[in-house]
Design a protein that fits this description.
Order of helices and strands: HHEHEEEEEHEHEEHEEEHE
Number of helices: 7
Distance between the termini: 13 Å
Shape: globular
Radius of gyration: 19 Å
Number of strands: 13
Structural class: alpha/beta
Strand content: 15-25%
């Protein structure tokens, strides 16, 4: 996920070269050690799921305690995602998608209970993260330009418009093929696990699953010959022992 965010922003963000990206924290390490690595960062972004949610919050809280000026950004499937009301047709034209303020799925409470988090992004993160970099210098004035971003202001949840899904996934350069992971692998000797995304979305609507949401039930694919097969070759050449 971090590789996707980086690769998409590298291609689409106007301000990408204004930022220096640290080596990502990719495994469980002591909270104090993790916070120490992030101490001088202006922005610390966390992509969270069930396996790293609690430790991510602990690291973010420690970073904020040590440096209150650090901007903390959270995203990933484990952040509560408000219900999206799809834009309909009206006499004025097509209405934009918006969030149902009455059904925020606990997002407001999440932000209030974890007040060390400045902003969260919900849904697909590539486009909002790129826009976040583009608007970072005016974040307090132009946050509406960053889609799917949420924060607390005057004790109320503030949300920008939902982001549309990326229909052509090939717009996201492969972090495997573009060398994003090379420095990480050269610096650390591990038995690596490759997370391999061959498509996005799911046509089913199972209530127990993160993908059982109406706005995620459209399938999107990668190019088989230009993307999927070369990534399989990359896993082989780099001796990746496990692929998920």
């Amino acid at each position: 996920s971090l590789g996707f965010l980086y690769s998409y922003a590298q291609t689409h963000s106007k301000n990408f070269n204004d930022f220096e990206f640290l080596m990502p924290i990719y495994k469980r390490i002591p909270i104090d050690f993790a916070a120490e690595q992030l101490l001088d960062a202006d922005i610390v972004a966390f992509s969270t799921y069930v396996w790293n949610f609690e430790i991510s919050k602990a690291i973010a809280k420690r970073v904020k305690q040590q440096n209150p000026n650090t901007l903390i950004l959270f995203g990933g499937p484990h952040v509560p995602e408000p219900i999206i009301i799809k834009g309909g047709y009206s006499s004025e034209g097509v209405g934009l998608d918006r969030y149902d303020k009455e059904r925020d799925n606990g997002l407001a409470d999440f932000l209030k209970q974890n007040d060390f988090i400045d902003y969260v992004i919900t849904g697909e993160g590539e486009m909002p993260f790129s826009a976040f970099l583009d608007n970072y210098y005016n974040i307090n004035h132009d946050s509406a330009k960053i889609s799917a971003m949420h924060y607390i202001k005057n004790d109320e949840l503030v949300s920008s418009s939902p982001t549309g899904r990326i229909r052509d996934l090939n717009e996201i350069p492969s972090p495997y093929l573009n060398g994003y992971f090379k420095p990480l692998m050269e610096t650390n000797s591990e038995s690596w696990i490759g997370l391999f995304e061959t498509n996005r979305g799911c046509p089913f609507k199972c209530s127990f699953c993160d993908w059982g949401l109406v706005d995620k039930n459209k399938m999107a694919d990668y190019d088989l010959e230009e993307r999927i097969f070369p990534e399989i070759d990359w896993f082989s050449k780099n001796k990746i022992e496990f692929v998920v």
